[in-house]
Amino acid sequence: xxxxxxxxxxxxxxxxxxxxxxxxxxxxxxxxxxxxxxxxxxxxxxxxxxxxxxxxxxxxxxxxxxxxxxxxxxxxxxxxxxxxxxxxxxxxxxxxxxxxxxxxxxxxxxxxxxxxxxxxxxxxxxxxxxxxxxxxxxxxxxxxxxxxxxxxxxxxxxxxxxxxxxxxxxxxxxxxxxxxxxxxxxxxxxxxxxxxxxxxxxxxxxxxxxxxxxx
Length: 215
Ligand SMILES: N[C@@H](CCC(=O)N[C@@H](CS)C(=O)NCC(=O)O)C(=O)O
Prior knowledge:
Layout: E1 2-5, H1 11-23, E2 27-30, H2 42-47, E3 55-58, E4 61-64, H3 66-77, H4 87-118, H5 126-147, H6 160-172, H7 183-193, H8 196-201
Parallel strand pairs: 1-2
Antiparallel strand pairs: 1-3, 3-4
The chain binds glutathione.
Glutathione (GSH) binds next to α1 and α3.
């Protein structure tokens, strides 16, 4: 049995739960982190020395880092859609996973979601936040060009790239922030919203996190 640890409001947990839903994997979900706590318990630290969620336990295998978990689940249970046998094909979603981790996520999640949404107004560093608004607008315009007329980022099928990147859209498009005109990304977001796993695990209210720096 697969066990997934992490609070539902965690963006990184949401990616994992959405993929678990796409794969229809039987699992147990245990809330950890935030108000649920438990991350500094020795048993939890034995699984993830960083004391962060998400973490999964699949039989004797423990995996932490959300995108490593996506890759693991894709390879174990999602071939070929979420883990192509051919390395060149697999490199397409893989490069977007890395781009998400190194570009979009730092600019959006750290820069805007933490720097603006979660930071109380009087504590915001608005010049840094404005630079992140600009960086995220550039990212969205790039995605708009890349997706073009395709239903999903890389073609006709949902891949790990859509899951990692698309999880940010629910927050990005539901905050009062400056956004560029990106009709193809908005269409893509609408297609993701048709998926039960996205609705159930990603489209969750997040207002409880507004102005709240504490986990
Ligand atoms: N790069 C890690 C980030 C892990 C992380 O920072 N997780 C946050 C939640 S998104 C966390 O555990 N925060 C402490 C808490 O929720 O109490 C990943 O992708 O899994």
